[in-house]
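The pair is quoted verbatim as follows:
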Amino acid sequence: MSETVSFDNLFSIRGKVALVTGGSRGIGEMIAAGFLAQGAKVYISSRKAEVCDATAKRLAETYGGECISLPADLSKMEGVGALAKELAGRESRLDILINNAGVSSFAPLDAEDEYEAIWHRAMAVMLTAHQRMVRAALPFLRQSDAARIVNIASTEGLGATPGDTPYVAAKTGVTGLTRGLAVDLGKEGITVNCVCPGPILTGMTARIAEEDKAVFAKRRTALRRYGLPEEVAQMTLNLVLPASSFVTGAVIPVDGGLIARNA
């Protein structure tokens, strides 16, 4: 007969310290909210200080616990360094790192200078910043007894939409970065996984007309609807639990069956 297992701690992040980049709105905000509701201490980062500060205050008031704003422009190396320095002044360890910062990056191939600018911005925010954050956070993550890294990519990293090559390339890079980091850090017991949201109701998709969203959802997803940020947050929470210690290098769609559906 196998040993009786206590699940109390295996399914809890109470007391854990988490950092969520791109945490001031959309999916990142909901991930931060979910962590707070589960008893974690949460730091959120985004480029606009006033928005980041306001979100941290609102989340703490709504869900209780500590939610601290660490605004930074993570597209720049100095922004990553400043965030790491600020974190070092507050914490000796970090248990959870969520790389979620992102930007919309649609650009036609023949847009010349505009395309180049969008390409470089997409790579800087959604790929280069991820690896820089992991490297900057490693000294803190190594002080945790159950360190977790989750990169938020997209189903655009598993397929492609026309006119979206900068975003597709950056998000595809995130899936590869995830696998590489999982292999490099596995020997230290640090897990690295990737969540790929499909069509989700966020500020980024708010500009799409409702009738167009309805047509797309019915034509492309098995569930025939757009997803909610909290549905992405739930998968992210699952991956940072102590019980998920044997899951690493995984790339997991949260897409309502978009990838699975052929017709």
Q: What stands out?
A: The longest helix spans residues 113-141. The CA atoms of residues 176 and 225 lie 28 Å apart.
